[in-house]
Amino acid sequence: FFDVVAHRLLDLFRQQTLEEKGWLVIRHLCGHLDVRRLYITVARAIQEAAAKNEPGELEFTQQLVQTFSWILFTAVETKQLRDELLQPAPISGLVGR
User: Fold this and answer.
1) End-to-end CA distance of the chain
2) d(Cα 21, Cα 28) in Å, to the nearest integer?
3) CA of 11: how far to CAs of 1, 28, 57, 85, in Å?
4) DSSP track, the chain
5) d(CA 68, CA 22)
6) The pTM is what?
7) CA–CA dist 18, 59 (Å, integer)
8) What are phi and psi of 48, to 5 degrees?
């Protein structure tokens, strides 16, 4: 399900200018879906799209990363993920090595 949403979202943003209402669509999705899973899935879709090396893909990818980053840093809908990312990584796996 998330893969389909991510790819359709990217297709939609390719057809319409991302700046128009892209940030609003992304925030709305974040308010209704698992934000962490959405971000991971979209990141993978962006990585796949960038690997194709098609004309204009670099600029599009840069815009997407900038938009998703801005939303992650500022939106109320992404606060839980933001807080999770700000937590220090557990070091329990490093003890005893």
Assistant:
1) 39
2) 11
3) 16, 17, 12, 28
4) -HHHHHHHHHHHHHHS-HHHHHHHHHHHHHHHS-HHHHHHHHHHHHHHHHHT--TTHHHHHHHHHHHHHHHHHH-GGGHHHHHHHHSPPP-TTTTT-
5) 10
6) 0.79
7) 11
8) -65, -45
Q: What is the pLDDT confidence band of residue 97, given thresholds at 50, 70 and 90? A: very low
Looking at per-residue pLDDT, the higher value among 29 and 94 belongs to 29
Q: Tell me how crowded residue 2 is: count the other CB atoms within 10 A of its CB.
A: 15
Query: Cβ(30)–Cβ(78) under 8 Å?
Result: yes
Q: How far apart are CA 6 and CA 41, in angstroms?
A: 6
Q: Contact 13/20 with Cβ under 8 angstroms?
A: no
